[in-house]
Amino acid sequence: MKTMHFKTNINCGSCVRGVTPALDGKAGITDWKVDLESEDRILTVRTNDQLTEDEVAAVVADGGFEAKPVDR
Predict the structure, then answer these.
(1) Transmembrane region positions (predicted)?
(2) Residue 26 contacts by C-beta under 8 Å, 6 or more apart in sequence?
């Protein structure tokens, strides 16, 4: 398992619902959540070890949002 963190523009419950199909539909993503309380709206994604940060960011982009990797 690998855990990745991203700064996003996912900023409300409706946005979370909008990106859910893209994240839930991506093979290799085992779990994810968005911290809507955080100023940076941090998306935490747990994956198998085969997905890269760029691939996860592309999935989020397919869902209509931006995701930029951050160190945690």
Answers:
(1) none
(2) 51, 56, 59
Residue 10 confidence (pLDDT): 97
Which residues, including other chains, have CB under 8 Å from residue 62's CB and lie 6 or more apart? 22
Domain 2-70: which topology? Answer: Alpha-Beta Plaits (3.30.70)
Walking along the chain (72 residues) 10 residues at a time, the average pLDDT comes out as: 96 96 95 96 94 96 96 78
59-60-63-64 Cα dihedral, nearest 10 degrees: -130
Structure tokens at 9: 């523009």
Residue ranges of domains in the chain: 2-70
Q: What is the DSSP string of 20-46?
A: HHHHHTSTTEEEEEE-TTSTT-EEEEE
